[in-house]
Amino acid sequence: MKVGRELRRRRNELGLSLREVAELTELSTGFLSQLENDQVSPSLASLDRIAQALRIPMYELLSSDNRDPVVRAGARPRQNLGSPELQVELLTNFQHWQMLPFHRCLAVGEKYEAVRIERAREEWMYVLAGIMEIYLRDQQPHVLHPGDSIHFASSRLEAVNSIGDEPLELICMMTPPAY
Length: 179
What we know:
Number of strands: 10
Distance between the termini: 23 Å
Number of helices: 5
Shape: elongated
Mean pLDDT: 86
Order of helices and strands: HHHHHEEEEEEEEEE
CATH architecture of the largest domain: Sandwich
Strand order of the largest sheet: 1-2-3-10-5-8
Helix content: 10-25%
CATH class of the largest domain: Mainly Beta
């Protein structure tokens, strides 16, 4: 695992010395120096302590993904979320990071019954077009119009209905990704 360059870049960005990072992580300056020069590989526990000290998510250190950060409208990757009938257009090339933004359309009158996705913890939806009726456990249905948004615990989602005279178009965010 080669993470040295990214660790050094972030440490310098924060203006921290190796000694300060060593104190924050309870790791030796020698080990941290070797790590920054890719002479040793850290355990996940050590990497987690370093990531916390440098205030960055550990997945950022583990990602050697050099894919293009731009997703063009006509080239969005498609993905099934939880079931074959729930196909979405991803708005990112980084499907395994902590946040998964996607675009979803439902035809006029289409109803989607929620499928439990064990990993997902939070969801956020923004209505671009159409009218959405959304059912969350233990609440009356919410009706959202273009420009409205909703943020909820994923486990509470029961159903989403397109109730307007035009297709429902949503931008959604799920964290962490469902797969």
